[in-house]
TrEMBL record:
GO terms for molecular function: ATP binding; ATP hydrolysis activity. This is ATPase AAA-type core domain-containing protein. PANTHER family: ATPASE AAA-TYPE CORE DOMAIN-CONTAINING PROTEIN, ATPASE-LIKE PROTEIN. SUPFAM superfamilies: P-loop containing nucleoside triphosphate hydrolases (SSF52540). Gene3D superfamilies: P-loop containing nucleotide triphosphate hydrolases (3.40.50.300).
Length: 431
């Protein structure tokens, strides 16, 4: 489970900012919000959901992009990380030459792993990993400065044979772009593998669409009819009525009996796999006849398509205790759909495995004391130097558990709203 993610000197983020899912000691108005915390986490009570708000270009996306970039660095298939995506804060001359820094804290089988690195676009300058059991003291697994690596005495045997191999400089295991973590994974060191498995449970979806690679990966899972049946049930629960979902590629076209002429033509011209949506159909007398079916991309709204793609991640998250991170969450979604998805994660009955949801959104409909705790709402705002700062609603003084969060936010009481100046948009009248 995700405890926190921190980053510094990355894009619009200058000083260290932390996205924390650690629950504050709050007393909320609705008892469910006091009881639905994740507690089987190594002694740290965690939130199920975190929602980020802020003006356009305030830096919300950069926080999530930082997590996406970091995960790509440390889950590389090679032994060297692709550092070209590391981008420092450029609005001061000194930060442009300094390393960007990232750190993640995860709960893994009742242990707390704290791993981080600092890197420029050409080399890794620092790397560290600490492990803690419950409320005990942290133990150093390793630290790195440049290409010099030190291993902690307490955990040294658990990372064998890496300490011995690293000490042998002739092997050249630690390179400028290389990571100690990737070397440990290459050696199948159990602690590193457990940490990597937990990292693999984090999915970050940026922008409004789903990249081709992500779609292709999901499409393979949709070949299983049971997967589509569960997604269909989830769509029904959100009020999206569909008679049947079916995986469709060129090989299966002939197996599908489609009577609608236009849909049949679209299907026969398939260039890549898709999902067939079948809907209830009636004749002139209102008698139900054979369902009408069409490829999702040609007959379903953008909102339905987005929920369909999200559904696979949502179901996996709530069933397997995974972390789903979504930017521009509200795009193409009705506010009630957005609320229903958030509520799915918030409710222990629909989220029994403790999946976590992190979203960036402008949907103020979610700012309700009946849906979110004060520590589940965060804001991202730029200071006078153009640097993004992240803070929680619970950090602000005077915010009660029965406050009108949405109204107060739109009124500017919490900051992170656009500084509008409409007269500048109106041409001056000549006298």
């Amino acid at each position: 489970m995700l405890i926190s993610f921190s980053l510094a000197n990355f894009r619009s983020i200058k000083e260290k900012q932390t996205l924390s899912l650690v629950a504050d000691a709050l007393k909320e108005q609705f008892e469910l919000l006091n009881e639905n915390l994740l507690t089987d986490t190594g002694g740290v009570p965690l939130l199920r959901t975190k929602v980020l708000y802020g003006a356009n270009s305030g830096g919300k996306t950069n926080v999530l992009l930082g997590l996406f970039t970091f995960l790509n660095l440390i889950t590389a298939s090679s032994l060297e990380a692709d550092l070209t995506t590391v981008r420092p804060f450029l609005l001061t001359d000194y930060t442009a030459e300094e390393a960007s820094e990232f750190e993640i804290v995860l709960s893994v089988e009742q242990k707390i792993f704290r791993y981080g690195l600092a890197a420029t676009t050409t080399r890794v300058t620092k790397e560290w990993l600490y492990v803690r059991q419950g409320s005990g003291k942290e133990s150093m697994a390793f630290t790195r400065e440049g290409n010099n690596v030190k291993f902690g005495a307490k955990l040294r045997t658990q990372w064998s044979p890496l300490p011995t191999l690293v000490k042998d400089e002739r092997r050249g295991l630690i390179r400028d772009r290389g990571l100690v973590l990737l070397q440990a994974l290459n050696l199948s060191i159990p602690q590193a593998q457990k940490f990597r498995t937990e990292l693999g449970k984090i999915s970050v979806i940026l922008g409004q669409g789903f990249p081709g690679a992500l779609r292709a990966r999901l499409m393979n899972t949709f070949k299983d009819p049971q997967v589509l049946l569960r997604i269909q049930g989830f769509l029904h629960g959100l009020g999206i009525d569909v008679e049947e979902l079916r995986y469709l590629d060129k090989d299966s076209v002939l197996e599908i009996g489609v009577t609608n002429g236009e849909a049949k033509e679209l299907i026969t011209k398939l260039s890549e796999p898709t999902i067939l949506f079948a809907h209830r159909s009636v004749d002139k007398q209102g008698k139900e006849i054979k369902p009408i079916a069409w490829p999702m991309e040609h007959g379903e709204s953008l909102g339905t398509q987005k929920v369909f793609w999200l559904a696979a991640f949502i179901i996996s998250a709530v069933e397997n205790g995974e972390v789903l991170v979504v930017d521009e969450f509200e795009a193409s979604l009705h506010p009630l759909l957005s609320e229903a998805i958030v509520d799915t994660f918030q409710n222990p009955q629909t989220n029994p495995a403790g999946g976590q949801l992190i979203i960036a959104t402008h949907d103020t409909n979610l700012l309700s004391p009946g849906l979110l705790r004060r520590d589940q709402v965060a804001f991202v705002e730029k200071d006078s130097q153009g640097a993004s700062e992240l803070y929680s609603l619970s950090d602000l003084t005077g915010v009660r558990n029965d406050s009108t969060y949405e109204k107060d936010y739109l009124a500017g009481k919490y900051g992170s709203v656009p500084a509008l100046d409409f007269p500048l948009l109106t041409p001056e009248k000549s006298e």
